[in-house]
Structure formats: structure tokens, C-alpha cells
Amino acid sequence: MFNNLIERWFDELLPEGFAGYILDQRFGLPTVHLEADFKAISRMGDDVQLELQVERIGSKSLTLCQRCISLDGELRMQVTQTYVTTSLITHQAIPIPDALYSALTQQQPV
């Protein structure tokens, strides 16, 4: 569910969307650090909301907080995830691309 949230967020952030960022521009966004806290049980069929907030923007990486919350406001799960921007050609870390950096610094929480 969180991966779908990231892809949808990118689709809203960038004109080319997530697929264009990866496939056309040949940029990657692998996870380099992940922390997950499970706070309450979710059961099959539960309706939940997902939230995403930018915690930190570095020169080559960004850290996001993603939360799963019940419709009555109970925090079910929280993930803090750090991604690094890479070239899919060289497979090396690269500075956050200008279009992404600009979108990140102007975006609203999802």
C-alpha cells in the first residue's frame, strides 16, 4: 500500500509521473533505510487512510514519513523511509534532479 502511495504521490508531483521518472528519465529511488512501527491491529476489510509527509530533503536523498490511520484516527502503522536518488545508467547516487527538488520544496502532504 505504501508503494502505491509513493507512486501516486510522484504522479501528482511530476508531469511525467513515477513511470516517466523511472523509465524515461532513467532515475532510480531505492530505499537505503527503513523503520516501521506497528501501533495497532488492522484486519482484512478495515478502511484506512494513508498519509505521506516529507521529513527531510538532502542533496541526494529524501526521508518520508508514511502513516496508516483508521477512519476514526487511530494510528495503525508508521514507516520512516529514506530514499536515495540514483542514475539507472551508472547505478550511482546522484543529486536530486532539479524538477523533483523543485516539486518537493513546493508540495503539500498527501
Automatic annotation (TrEMBL):
SUPFAM superfamilies referenced in this protein's UniProt entry, alphabetically: Thioesterase/thiol ester dehydrase-isomerase
Pfam families: 4HBT_2
UniProt-recorded name of the protein: Uncharacterized protein
UniProt lineage: Bacteria, Pseudomonadati, Pseudomonadota, Gammaproteobacteria, Enterobacterales
